[in-house]
Give the backbone structure.
Amino acid sequence: MSLYPGYIRKPHYYETDQMAIIHHSNYIRWFEEARVELLAYLDLPYHTIESVGLIVPVLGVSAQYKQMIRYEDEVLIKVLVDKYTGTRLDFRYEISKTSDGQLTTIGTSQHCFLAKETNRLVQLKRQFPEIHQRFADYAALSETTAKEA
């Protein structure tokens, strides 16, 4: 397994404010787009996760804006697993401009795994060992990459 190379995003005009700067509310959507693509990369698209009776709600999300992103800027959104416990999955996002690599935004999101029918917390290692292993492996890879940076 290799590290997800990231999600390329070109802003849409409707995502800007009157100064042609990306409105802050769009970054959370971009995090979700990148997270969905990461799950597909891991061969765990949402429809697969949901088809086995799991849901993955968002518990929290944050964004720290370092530089403005403008309408014409293409960006790369890197997604790493910050923490994985078997019941929780926390992501870290880094958005940088593809033109110069400048880091513009850092974000996080926290999630848990619930049974769709009962909304009760699920321990992946026990109930879905294959899904657990995929997340555990990617979390280890993310941790190794973070230490090397």
